[in-house]
Design a protein that fits this description.
Elements lengths: L2 H4 L2 H14 L1 H5 L2 H20 L2 H16 L17 H51 L2 H5 L3 H43 L1 H47 L2 H6 L3 H53 L5 H15 L5 H23 L20 E11 L2 E11 L4 E5 L6 H8 L7 E6 L2 E2 L5 H5 L2 E5 L9 H6 L14 H10 L3 H6 L17 H13 L5 E5 L7 H15 L3 E5 L3 H5 L3 E6 L2 E6 L1 H6 L7 H4 L5
Parallel strand pairs: 3-8, 3-9, 6-7, 7-8
Antiparallel strand pairs: 1-2, 1-4, 4-5, 9-10
Helix pairs in contact: 2-13, 4-6, 4-8, 5-6, 5-12, 6-8, 8-9, 8-12, 8-13, 9-11, 9-13, 11-12, 17-19, 19-20
Bound molecules: adenosine-5'-triphosphate.
Family: Belongs to the ABC transporter superfamily. Siderophore-Fe(3+) uptake transporter (SIUT) (TC 3.A.1.21) family.
Keywords: ATP-binding, Cell inner membrane, Cell membrane, Membrane, Nucleotide-binding, Transmembrane, Transmembrane helix, Transport
GO molecular function, one term: ATP binding
Length: 616
């Protein structure tokens, strides 16, 4: 947990500084707006300081007039040169008051709009950067993090920063500047009375500080419970078939309910504490007002202060101290925002493991010669999955990788797509180490069809187009004719056209509204549009019913025609169809050759199991 979440505002400062430093370029881009906002802020504070003065003049004038002679109304006002009549003074003061209030409202509006706009612009850019960065982070990173937590950072944490800028940072800055300004004015007016007010201030800081820390600590507990809630909801809602088929509904509901109750209890405690703080502040303001009334009254009688000035004093007290009762709210929000900022900066500072080496060059179009040279690779240190793997696949050949579950076949595919890098040894395509090539140029030449192809909740057209590399180099979408071509190749065109909205049909999340065979054919179209010289089929036929199996098999056949193809399969027939078979066991090639050599003349007794059907 970031330090800022542990201690109130002072603990939040390093986090805020780090966040601001990280986003300084984005903030600098909005400097014009921020400057206008700051000018408006100072204007607003100055006008707030001016606001009670017309009233003070009126009171002094009335007191002077009524004190001298009630009947002298209309006569020159003593002590205020240039204003001949009390009525004129009243009109001027009233107009001034209206003018000050109207100008203040205008300045406050301008300030809020400028800061809100600048904040939103900065954070919208940060959010896009964060999302893009997450997409580039390595699989190892994503496997170690909960999706719900990452989603919360992209949405909730950015939202919290946005909210805190407008609803806490700006009012807090405004109030602090106002407080300082008012204090300067009252010191100039009567330093002795100002001193009396200043005595109440530390008392306020003491009570406020203690309660604020408590409120922040309770709110933190609430936020943690909310995070757990979000993670649980994201995970279970994303795995609805598992939830329902295992009848997990009530158990999950119970867990969700438990976390939910916790957020409620913490929420209620935080509300009670902040309501208590507000009331205590009210009492303190009352105390300060009482002191000023008592001492101020004496000062007026002694002639050291005019009644109007005493009114200004009292008004300042009310205006300055009232917002301080919201201090817990502001500091709480700012501490939360600092924690959110740190969570975002932490993510942005996480470097992807798989990146372009400084010497990496764009790959030319591959012929498709694949070589694994003494490859050692594991997911966890000290536990290699591939233990010195060697294999060569000639270009344009269809190769089957078979072997028991957990042997490392999918890991080979992952290395070939450069989702991961080997711990030792080399993966080469056309004789070039993948690490010497730029990621995009190498990955765009490998198409993958998995068993459970993930489709996005978008139109069928967009789902197919996702497969296309950036053909024009400027992000322009691929042409309609290519999408149709890919769909025809995948044997999907017919059923897509039969849908009411055709290619514009929006499919459910993860392709939930399509049958398994249909989903797979769209995934094949998505792979086809890549026009990649290397194709990986990882159990692409597993789990389909016999009716669709033939269609998908034909589509896969068309997809892989003339391309180097890696077929990872447990299905003997599919393996027999290959030019070459590599039998992988415990991270090594234990047998290689034509299907006949591997399956029909096995020298290794374990290979017998292969010839009997499926590889277990
Ligand atoms: N993301 C991961 N994190 C940690 N371990 C993993 C990960 N993926 C795979 N493994 C482990 O690595 C080993 C090899 O897995 P891999 O998926 O490459 O095998 P496979 O031969 O493709 O198996 P299957 O035929 O069941 O798909 C297994 O022991 C597996 O548990």
């Amino acid at each position: 947990m970031p330090a800022s979440a542990k201690r109130g505002l002072s603990g939040a400062l390093p986090g805020l500084r780090r966040t601001l430093h990280r986003f300084r370029h984005q903030v600098a881009a909005e400097r014009k707006l921020i400057l206008v906002g700051l000018l408006a802020l100072f204007a607003e504070v100055a006008l707030r300081l001016l606001e009670p003065w017309p009233l003070a003049y009126v009171i002094d004038a009335i007191v002077a007039a009524t004190g001298a002679d009630l009947a002298t109304r209309g006569a020159p006002v003593p002590g205020i040169p240039g204003v001949a009549h009390l009525t004129v003074l009243l009109i001027i003061c009233a107009a001034a008051l209206v003018g000050v209030v109207a100008l203040r409202a205008g300045a406050a509006y301008l300030m809020t709009v400028c800061f809100a706009l600048a904040g939103n612009r900065v954070l919208t850019r940060v959010r896009t950067e964060l999302y893009g960065h997450l997409n580039r982070l390595s699989l190892r990173f994503h496997e170690s993090r909960r999706t719900g937590d990452l989603v919360t950072r992209v949405t909730g944490d950015i939202g919290r920063l946005q909210e805190a800028t407008v609803t806490a940072a700006i009012p807090l800055a405004g109030n602090v500047i106002t407080l300082a300004g008012m204090f300067v004015v009252i010191v100039i007016m009567d330093w002795q009375l100002a001193l009396a007010v200043a005595v109440v201030f530390p008392l306020f800081l003491l009570i406020g500080g203690r309660l604020t820390r408590k409120i922040n600590s309770v709110s933190r507990g609430q936020r943690e419970a909310e995070g757990a809630l979000a993670s649980l909801a994201t995970e279970s809602l994303g795995a609805m078939p598992v939830v329902q088929s295992y009848a997990l509904e009530s158990r999950l509901e119970q867990r969700f309910g438990g976390s939910s109750e916790r957020t409620l209890a913490d929420g209620v405690r935080a509300k009670k504490l902040s309501a208590g703080l507000e009331r205590k502040t009210d009492v303190l303001v009352g105390l300060a007002t009482g002191v000023v009334l008592l001492l101020g009254g004496h000062r007026v009688l002694a002639g050291a202060l005019t009644p109007g000035e005493l009114t200004v004093f009292l008004t300042y007290l009310k205006t300055a101290f009232r917002p301080l009762r919201d201090i817990a709210k502001y500091t709480g929000r700012i501490a939360k925002a600092a924690a959110s900022g740190e969570r975002i900066v932490d993510l942005l500072d996480t470097r992807p493991e798989i990146v372009d080496a400084p010497w990496a060059r764009p790959a030319p179009r591959f012929r498709g010669l694949i070589e694994f040279r003494d490859v050692v690779f594991g997911y966890r240190p000290g536990r290699p999955v591939l233990k010195g793997l060697n294999l060569i696949i000639p270009p344009g050949r269809r190769v089957a990788l078979v072997g028991p579950s957990g042997a490392g076949k999918s890991s080979i595919a992952g290395l070939l797509s450069r989702l991961r890098d080997p711990d030792a040894g080399q993966v080469l395509i056309d004789g070039r180490d993948l690490r010497d090539l730029t990621l995009d140029s190498a990955r765009s030449q490998v198409a993958v069809v998995l068993q459970d192809s993930v489709l996005f909740a978008d139109t069928i057209r967009a789902n197919i187009a996702f497969g296309a590399p950036d053909v024009y180099g400027d992000g322009r979408p691929v042409g309609e004719e290519w999408i149709r071509w890919a769909a025809r190749l995948a044997g999907a065109d017919q059923f897509i056209q039969a849908l009411p909205q055709g290619y514009d049909t929006v499919i459910g999340e993860r392709g939930a509204t399509l049958s398994g065979g249909q989903r797979q054919r769209i995934a094949i179209a998505r792979a086809a549009i890549r026009n990649a010289p290397i194709v990986i089929l990882d159990e692409a036929m597993t789990g389909l019913d016999p009716g669709t199996e033939a269609e998908v098999a034909a589509a896969l056949r068309r997809l892989t025609e003339g391309r180097t193809t890696l077929v990872i399969t447990h299905d003997l027939d599919a393996a027999r169809d290959a030019d070459l078979v590599f039998w992988i066991d415990e991270g090594r090639v234990v047998r290689a050759g034509t299907p006949t050599a591997v399956f029909d003349h096995p020298t290794d007794p374990r290979a017998l199991s292969l010839s009997k059907g499926r590889v277990r």
